[in-house]
User: Fold this.
Amino acid sequence: MTDIPDRRARRRAETQEEILGLALDVMAEEGVAGLSLATVARRLGVRPPSLYRYFPSRGAVYDALFERGQRAYLDAVRGPAGSRSPGLDALGASYEAGARWIMANPVLAQLLFWRPVPGFTPSPEAYAPALAIHDHFAGLIRAAVERGELHPDAAGDDGLALASSLIAGLVSQQLANQPDAGYEDGRFTRLVPRLPAVLAAVYPPR
Assistant:
């Protein structure tokens, strides 16, 4: 009898994952802001009130997706950095990995990096991985400064904002203008490897 609560917890978690997957499908079809829990419930084969046992509101579904997406993006950008030299080389690898993840997950990326849902604000728990992403890139830029690849100002608030805007700008242009292109074929994503050099041109070492 002791494993019954565990089985129930597993089933609950599996159902929650199924709901989130269906929610992404609906968002892909109707737009990120067009998520309807009634549609999700119908596709799950339950009545809409049953969905509230798993997520109390539409905002809670967005919040869960936001956290899941940020954690996946964090894993993506962290992955290749560990095998590269600290500094600009690792920064470039993280830029590329992040851009590839966004191109592979465009619907979820809209929720993470743009504001497509009026009134939605992620909870502190869901936003925590985003802070870790910021810290990851800040650490790579500080390492580049320590290696003499960037001016110390690159690690300041303006430098970090520019570093973030460089990759966000390219990916935004890619999704807006060539959403169906692959990473290598994209008019804008193929420029991602140049971004560390752009940052170094703005913040040349002393």
